[in-house]
């Protein structure tokens, strides 16, 4: 782990949802946007997701899918997709479990290559975390490949996620993953 | 979607009868066959040959769909299973990522890559899909085949499923083995052999017995090598299943409904022996083949024997197995020197990584990974060697709980293969004896006595009370769990401790307190020496220390705050452990000394009284003047090991303190800045990091406020803090050097609480940290350097104690 003293943003986060010139953040609307999400995510993630996986996230938690639209692009250029689990409760009983602990999960985050290093990924994560917090989640988890230092820098350094567990040979390419968790 | 489905099913059937009007049932079976990998009988009938071409049958499906009526609304009948997963698979046929069979999309017309069609397992040497080489094997090809067998074996032992390893060898499939066996051992020959054995007393089973076969030496070698892979797979799976400590990263239990073969040769070693006598010349190729067979036989025999040890003569059994293991390792060492390894290759039709794809189902599968032969052999060598030093040595040398604990900790730190870890678990406790040799209750009692006050004989009777006896029995399972913990994957330790062990030891602490209270009230114990309470507290502290140190090994502490939390808490726990163990040992040493003085007085008195009565007064004077000095005491090996352990704990505690001060010095210098996050806080992170300790009563869980106070060096000047940090690392360095020169040579290396390599690593950490601290002291006056310096927490030198690098 390296701590670069030059980068002040490691030490602090902005309080507000920062606006990025030329970029609008919109909520997922309906099935008509599904192919954009699949295209963004499928391009970069090594693990394949079926259409049913996307639908599982988007139909159950449409409010936890946020798209970033650029002024100079007709299609979304980035997205984040998440869900909420109620820990210790079977999925079929989740709706009835009023006092159970809610945990957010960030399943997918993708930014088109041409739009990277502009803070769009950070802005999307900030927004989804805020929503999960508003929805009374106690914590948020995600998995990231051990070699994905960019993602780790984003989640760990900028948002304070900690490494909770090492998942050996988690991915289909035999690579390991860290489970990260943020405690609100 | 429909077009993709149609294009794939078109591949399956080139029948011109497509043009005729099929019945409803025929239409249904046509659809289902294309997407149901599990219906292998249908699938095999429709498997295309390698020269199949694509036929557009869109119109056919359109016709079928137009014929649907409300009465017959479905293309697939209910009798034919077509579930949701099949529907998902059908919609993803041809998808570049989701299609596990990697059939390219219909619309791709040009590609340089050949299509890789899914294939069923072979049904014999000649099946519908391919014909396996049998009559044309050459010696060199056999060697290439043998090397690939080792590659598959290595894949199996390092976490690949049988579908990704064993069954990628087409000759290891049951129907092929059966056919090879039928050809090599025709029924009439087998019967004839049996007749001769039954009627000829000289042909009874001996160690030199070999088989007669009907074929070429190369054919027998192929059969023997394939059968060895199958048999070793069976034994390996049996061992890992029975031990039941495997996780998904170690081992995949599924066989994908592909059966393992049961050979007619029950004594499999005879097959090996026959194979080793097949070739009579000593060419390079044959020498290499002989080494491979020698390894396979040794590997198989040692695994199988270690899995079924008996308590009777166990040490002799293990010594015998150790000899076999060493020979197997030697065979691989010699094999690695063979030049013929470089150029051999097996026929391409002998191995196929896609053979099990239809059985896997409809989800994307892992990439089948095989390594280069040399690497596979090196890994197999390591796995085999582990059976020697981690399994055999454990069984031969562990003769106390403390020694077993230390040996297992070393095994755990070395990340030993699932095979050896499973063999350790199978032999850890069987036939009501620990390691098949010792009484668990007796070992626990001796472990307790190793650290507590020696009791006088007159007080020992209280140990026979029901309460003490019950509590010792109660301790057996939790202590067994602390040993078994070391056989789990390191990345699983924390979860196991959190869920199972901490709650268990919390209960034990309460029970131990109650027992000590009772013994104290009965006058058997002094209140200042609650032996059972101390014992359970020490066990709990050890677990808590391991919980944090494993976190370092897994690189879970990723920020300087996190690292600071961990070292601070670890310092607290190690200090507690050191305090209690030192106090217990001190009490024990004092009691020992008193006992020796008492015995010495008694001896002197007896010696004096042997004189006659006339010397009575003289004797009285001698008795009164007898010096109260204990006779010189020669420490036992266990005493030396105990002292070594205490020294290592002190060393690690001091390293924690040095690291904490280094972090504080960097913060004071403005190099490490305080981090603030919008959604969380340091206090929250601290609380959740050590949530596993929240339920433990002793030691009481610490809170962030205590950390903030304990790590606050704001009242210390920069110079003093840096000086203090330097002194801590210097004292650690001296401690390491003392341990290397004095403590380590005085104990058996297998019983040492720390090995030489780890001591060397810690020495480098001490030196490295001091070097960077010196750099900080020299450069801190330069604001430019302070603003541009990068801090790196490097754990490659030692995985628990980092070197804090400044660049």
UniProtKB/TrEMBL annotation, chain A:
Residues 23-184 form the N-acetyltransferase domain. GO terms for molecular function: protein N-terminal-methionine acetyltransferase activity. Keywords: Acyltransferase, Transferase. It is an enzyme of class 2 (transferase). Pfam families: Acetyltransf_1. GO terms for cellular component: NatC complex. InterPro entries: Acyl_CoA_acyltransferase, GNAT_dom, NAA30-like. CDD domains: NAT_SF. Its EC number is 2.3.1.256. Belongs to the acetyltransferase family. MAK3 subfamily. This is N-alpha-acetyltransferase 30.
TrEMBL record, chain B:
Pfam families: Mak10, TPR_NAA35. It is found in: Cytoplasm. One of its GO terms (cellular component) is NatC complex. Residues 81-266 form the NAA35-like N-terminal domain. Its main location: cytoplasm. InterPro entries: NAA35-like_N (IPR057983), Naa35_N (IPR007244), TPR_NAA35 (IPR057982). Residues 391-804 form the NAA35-like TPR repeats domain. Residues 592-637 are annotated as: Disordered. Keywords: Cytoplasm. PANTHER family: GLUCOSE REPRESSIBLE PROTEIN MAK10, N-ALPHA-ACETYLTRANSFERASE 35, NATC AUXILIARY SUBUNIT. Belongs to the MAK10 family. This is Protein MAK10 homolog. It comes from Fistulifera solaris.
